[in-house]
Design goal:
The strands form four sheets. The protein has a five-stranded parallel β-sheet, sandwiched between helices. The protein has three domains: 9-17 and 202-299, Cobalt-precorrin-4 Transmethylase, domain 1 (3-Layer(aba) Sandwich); 20-103 and 307-320, 3-Layer(aba) Sandwich (Rossmann fold); 105-188, 4-hydroxy-3-methylbut-2-enyl diphosphate reductase, catalytic domain (Cobalt-precorrin-4 Transmethylase, domain 1, 3-Layer(aba) Sandwich). The protein has helices at residues 3-6, 20-36, 50-59, 85-93, 104-118, 132-138, 175-188, 202-214, 230-241, 277-288, 311-319, and strands at residues 9-14, 40-43, 61-64, 75-78, 97-100, 122-126, 145-148, 165-169, 220-224, 246-250, 266-271, 294-299, 324-327, 333-336. Helix 9 links the parallel strand 9 (220-224) and strand 10. It is α/β, with parallel strands linked by helices.
Length: 340
């Protein structure tokens, strides 16, 4: 073997890829297609990943922007990012049969918003304007919530009572940037209250910690994920902030440019929480073909959280006596019997 080639290595961050909420949402659409047959309508992208959306489309899922595009009385799945009460109401008006695949961790933030609004707090929602999750959360209490996009937005925040302010956040943000936003908010509003528990989800945090671990040793970090995936985009930022010389976001291995690899000896790989492992495997094959055959997984946490399927789907599957085999991110299978 050429000794120069043998020095090329790949550090694969772990955890990476599918989180429990994405796993649940994707399986919900797959099981709905199996059980009810195509078409099954999905409002927005079920998760922010091009490959997943294309694969489900091929199976008969129909993705729409709004419920008024769904035929009256048809079945529609709400995405993992959550929807506002107004969307639920619009679906009810059209007699749509809904399956709510909102991630339970997003639902938790929705409930926080409702509770703080009922106590008449000004709620500062740290997140990105226009993101589906932010739109859904803000819709729970539009008269009480204002969105704070970044630390630089803090100077423009105005509240009714500085002693009655609380912050909540989108679940897929950069942990470091969010904490900087909170720090500045607390400087402006010293009695700012925290949410009862961390809103940035475990998977987002774990993937960022893993990338921070490998980035200082990497000439290049490749993050597999789509450009509309907030947590995937954040991983590129985290890699650069943590010391990687370069970092790029790709949907597919074929998007990797040969010039990115010039002079590179160590490549780091991670993937967003909506990315199936098959796409990471393709990147590893691409790199192996170019001499990066020494692969090491660097694990900073182990994840075993699983969520039950949406109750509407679970009830119908239970009636028919069906069981669900849930794929696990480590490749194993755990059988979930739908009796609960």
């Amino acid at each position: 073997m050429n000794p120069e080639l043998s020095t090329k290595r790949v550090l694969v961050a772990a955890p990476r890829g599918y989180c429990a909420g994405v796993d649940r949402a994707v399986i919900a659409v797959e099981k709905a297609l199996d059980h009810y047959g195509a078409p099954v309508y999905v409002r927005k992208e079920i998760v922010h990943n091009k490959y997943v959306v294309e694969t489900l489309t091929d199976r008969g899922a129909v993705f729409v922007d709004e419920t008024d595009e769904v035929p009256e009385g048809a079945r529609v799945v709400f995405s993992a990012h959550g929807v506002s009460p107004a969307v639920h109401a619009a679906a009810a008006e059209r007699s749509l049969q809904t399956i709510d695949a909102t991630c339970p961790l997003v639902t938790k933030v929705h409930k926080e918003a409702v509770r703080f609004a009922s106590d008449d707090y000004d709620i500062l929602l740290i997140g990105h304007t226009g993101h589906e999750e932010v739109e859904g959360t803000a819709g729970e209490a539009p008269d009480h919530i204002q969105i704070v996009n970044s630390p630089d937005d803090v100077e423009n925040v105005v509240v009714r009572d500085p002693d009655k302010v609380v912050w909540i956040s989108q679940t897929t943000l950069s942990v470091d940037e969010t904490m900087e936003t909170v720090r500045r908010l607390r400087e402006k509003f010293p009695t700012l209250q925290d949410p009862p528990s961390d809103d940035i989800c475990y998977a987002t945090q774990n993937r960022q910690v893993a990338v921070k671990k490998i980035a200082p040793a990497c000439d290049l970090v490749i993050v597999v994920g789509s450009t509309n995936s907030s947590n995937s985009v954040r991983l590129v930022e985290v890699a650069l902030d943590a010391g990687a010389r370069a970092s790029y976001l790709v949907d597919y291995a074929k998007e990797i440019q040969e010039e990115w690899l010039e002079g590179v000896r160590t490549v780091g790989i991670s993937s967003g929480a909506s990315v199936p492992e098959i796409l990471v495997d393709d990147v590893l094959k691409f790199l192996a073909a170019r001499g990066f055959g020494d692969v090491e997984e660097v694990r900073t946490a182990t994840e075993d959280l699983m969520f039950s399927l949406p109750r509407e789907l679970r009830a119908d599957l239970k009636k028919s006596g069906e069981q669900v085999a849930r794929p696990r991110r480590d490749g194993r299978t755990a059988l979930s019997v739908l009796t609960s």
